[in-house]
Give the backbone structure.
Amino acid sequence: MIQNIYSYGSLKTLSGLVAVLAFSCSVGIAQANESSAYITSDPSFEEDAAWMRRRMVELMKSNRGELPDGRTVFYADALKHYNLIFTRGFGYLYEFSGDLVSDSDAKGFLEYLLAGQREDGCIPDRVDSEGEAIYSPGGKNNQLADHALDNAAFLASAVCRYVSNSGDLAFFRQHEPALRRGMDFINRAPNGLVYNDPENPQCVYGFTDIVKKTGFLLFTSVLYYDACLRMEVACRESRAGDTTEYARRAQLIKDNLGVLWDRHSGAFYAASGLCKQYDVWGTAFALYHGLATPEQETRALDFLVNNYDRFVQKGQIRHILEPETWQATFAYRPAGVYQNGAYWATPLGWFVPVLARRDPALAQETLQACLRDYRERGIHEWVNGGVKRLPDYFVSAASVYSLLRSESIR
């Protein structure tokens, strides 16, 4: 069986956020938090955590479906607004709550996505319930671009997690060439960073898919880095593919991500062209993946703590600092709506562990505030003030659930 890239022994649970922080610092890599759970002695918190675990199990039943051939599929939300879950949505579901997804269900859905790969290597943004592959965010008949730049990394990482969980090396050997073609399809600059050509912009990270970021891209580059690391390990264990090339690509990103760092603020920019704005989600994500120098990490943690009130509402996180909106978009959304200033739980799976390095109490407060909101108003895709959209949103639930698990996440 492929070993978890970020395995640090048999540690299963921790007694509190302070212990998480100490453990994370001792190994020096944010991914140590993948094998950590946020357990405290507060009875009310334990009650909230137990409720969240029950809700996640319920969603695994209510948000699932079945294809005519018997394979399991998943819906993104209770209203089935998005039809089947997107490639990135399944990537997050499997990362955050893989203990609730059987090997057979994971394998079937991964096969379903892989079957939608385009001849030029492009990985689908999603495959609908009729089996039609769709390559760009947007409506089926009104797509925002030719493709999105995050799907290859999400699918490659999900396949590697499946192989690690199941030990199905044959599956990886079979599909590594397709995954490599998907990774090769993604446009990258000579410095290794994912690059969005301003003359022909594509959609970027799916949870900002309406945002027209151009130039070097922060979030998508970090996703690509993580996928390369996982592919390197899977290739080595399965004796398939080019371990050296995946390692080279990951190292290039690690060496050059600093071009997106702003020394003045301590934050990372979302992109180097359009939307060169401080990226709250992306800054935490870069730290979570160990891609910041010691100076960058210190300053970035300062940025997150000092600006906390400008991007957190009821424990959920804005993409950029309030009251900013994105500089350029593919599709208009008013300020404070959807990806243009609303608050999401999606990033909590990496944001809370990163915040805990500097301020464990604030990290715990963030998680508890989100749990309270979930119990009072339900689990939604995004919220802002009294507005809430799409109930029983899978990724929002899974992200918070990941922080309460007592088993390591792979």
Q: What stands out?
A: The longest strand covers residues 380-384. Residues 17-402 form a domain with the Glycosyltransferase fold (CATH 1.50.10.10).
